[in-house]
């Protein structure tokens, strides 16, 4: 389920959300193993196969872009070792990206990334300003979750951080969007 659907269909039932996630899980290719790779030590996870900045990442490339927020404290780029399919939440943890979820989806979606946006930060949008309370009521700004397969194009993630699995060579981006801008990752 996309973050846009969650934001625009806030009134939809939890049962419908569960059904859509279940359908997304069923569409996973049969060749993808169902278990995640064993966790590595903190020192091994911090090491990277190649620099994420040069684009050649043998693990999972992680990008955090505060986009339209104009609060760049969260921005980062890293390459995280991954020996096989690894949950997005684990990949972000290995990249030392701290996530605070929303009230309704505390482990699936990001409300704050590395403390951004701060609870007292005014987010300017077309209708005025708002502040992120992480209460699932903010529909004008949010952290969008994007995935890019090796050699492919960026696409909105179809699962949340707690169920999305990434493979070596793939990229994951958290992009802050205000009034649907930016509409997609830059690179």
How does the SSE layout of this entry go?
Layout: H1 3-8, H2 14-26, H3 42-46, E1 60-65, E2 76-80, E3 86-87, H4 88-94, E4 99-100, E5 112-113, E6 123-125, E7 128-130, E8 141-148, E9 155-156, E10 165-166, E11 171-178
Parallel strand pairs: 1-11
Antiparallel strand pairs: 1-2, 3-10, 4-5, 6-7, 8-9, 8-11
What is Rg? Answer: 16 Å
Number of strands: 11
Unreliable spans are: 1-53
In percent terms, what proportion of residues is strand?
Answer: 15-25%
> Which bin fits the share of residues in helices?
10-25%
Question: Strands of the largest sheet, in order across it?
Answer: 2-1-11-8-9
Give the helices and strands as they follow along the chain: HHHEEEHEEEEEEEE
Overall shape: globular
Overall mean pLDDT score? 76
Helix vs. strand class: alpha+beta
Biggest sheet record:
5 strands, mixed
What's the short version?
The protein has one domain (3-178). Helix content is 17%, strand content 23%. It is built from 4 helices and 11 strands; from the N terminus they run αααβββαββββββββ.
Q: What can you tell me about this protein's structure?
A:
It is a single chain. By secondary structure, the chain is an alpha+beta fold. The chain has one domain (3-178). 17% of the residues lie in helices and 23% in strands. The chain has helices at residues 3-8, 14-26, 42-46, 88-94, and strands at residues 60-65, 76-80, 86-87, 99-100, 112-113, 123-125, 128-130, 141-148, 155-156, 165-166, 171-178. The protein has a five-stranded mixed beta sheet with strand order 2-1-11-8-9, with helices on one face. The protein has a two-stranded antiparallel sheet with strand order 3-10. Strand 8 and strand 9 (155-156) form a beta hairpin. The radius of gyration is 16 Å and the shape is globular. 34% of the residues are buried.
């Amino acid at each position: 389920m996309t973050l846009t659907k969650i934001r625009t269909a806030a009134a939809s039932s939890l049962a419908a959300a569960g059904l859509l996630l279940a359908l997304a899980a069923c569409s996973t290719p049969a060749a993808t193993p169902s278990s995640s790779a064993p966790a590595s030590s903190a020192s091994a996870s911090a090491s990277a196969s190649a620099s994420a900045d040069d684009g050649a990442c043998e693990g999972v490339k992680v990008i955090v872009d505060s986009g339209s927020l104009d609060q760049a404290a969260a921005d980062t780029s890293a390459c995280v070792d991954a020996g096989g399919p690894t949950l997005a939440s684990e990949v972000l943890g290995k990249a030392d990206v701290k996530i605070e979820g929303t009230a309704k989806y505390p482990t699936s979606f990001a409300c704050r990334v590395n403390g951004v946006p701060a609870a007292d930060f005014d987010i300017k949008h077309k209708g005025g300003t708002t502040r992120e309370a992480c209460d699932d009521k903010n529909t004008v700004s949010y952290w969008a979750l994007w995935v890019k397969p090796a050699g492919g194009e960026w696409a909105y993630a179809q699962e949340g951080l707690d169920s999305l699995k990434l493979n070596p060579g793939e990229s994951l981006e958290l992009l802050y969007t205000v009034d649907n801008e930016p509409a997609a990752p830059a690179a």
